[in-house]
Amino acid sequence: MVRLHSSSGRIPLRNAVGISIALAVLLGAVLERANAWETEEMIKTRGDSLKIAFVLGQASHFIHDLNVPLHAVVGESQQQHAAYERSASFPTWPGAQYGYRGFFLVKNDKCFARETAERSGKHAYDAMKPVPPRAVIERTWNDAVNDTANLLQSIFYRALGPETSQALYGIPTPKGVIGDGWLCGL
Ligand SMILES: [Zn+2]
Q1: In this structure, are residues 107 and 180 in contact, taking their beta carbons and an 8 Å threshold?
Q2: Whose CA is closest to 136, among 125, 149, 148, 147?
Q3: CA 11 to ligand 1 centroid distance, Å
Q4: Given 35, 53, 75, 126, which residue has the most CB atoms within 10 angstroms?
Q5: Which domain holds residue 65?
């Protein structure tokens, strides 16, 4: 059990990394199931487009949610959660140092989800401060946008292959591979 100070007193936090891994495994399993078993197959066979759209929406939601640091821990108050999410909204890129980093291929969804939660969970303490640091909000927002773009493009890339996904949707050659760490197979 980890404790930290906040304006409302001392907040018990369970081990943030442990929780984030558990959450990531759970959401990763959903992502993996949704994508690998259903969406990619449906895309390959030009299946039910409404169903494909729905599952892609779910996948976007899940990977975005994992970038919210307070989704990787428990113990924060409702006000803290709401305060963070209210401030984590930008109509355009929040600064010149942020932006789309280009297409990186997601190799394994479960692994990608875990990596994402581990990365965002590191900011949980800052995210619970009465005024969450702007830099944390901007960085995690930027990561969420990039992760969502990478996941969606990866689903099509994996289902259709490089040539067809490029020809149909302009998905370029990946700049690298993500979601491919040593924990992937666990
Ligand atoms: Zn939330």
Answers
A1: yes
A2: 125
A3: 18
A4: 35
A5: 2-178
Give me the amino acid identity at 76: E
Taking the centre of ligand 1 as the mean of its atom positions, its distance from the CA of residue 85, in whole angstroms, is 7
| The model scores a pTM over 0.90 | no
Distance 46 CA to ligand 1 centre (A): 34
Cα(143) to centroid of ligand 1, in Å? 16
Q: What would the pLDDT profile of 108-127 be if each residue is shown by its tens digit?
A: 888 888 889 889 989 988 99
Distance 63 CA to ligand 1 centre (A): 12
Is 85 part of any domain?
yes
pLDDT digits (tens, 9 = 90+) for 49-93: 888 888 888 888 889 888 999 887 777 788 888 888 888 888 888
Going by C-alpha positions, the residue among 102, 114, 104 that lies closest to residue 31 is: 114
Q: What is the DSSP string of 19-31?
A: HHHHHHHHHHHHH
Q: Considering the domain boundaries, does residue 183 fall inside one?
A: no
Distance of CA 68 from the midpoint of ligand 1 (Å): 7
Does residue 186 sit within a domain? Answer: no
| 40 domain-assigned | yes
Spatial distance between the Cα atoms of 177 and 157, rounded to a whole number of angstroms: 12
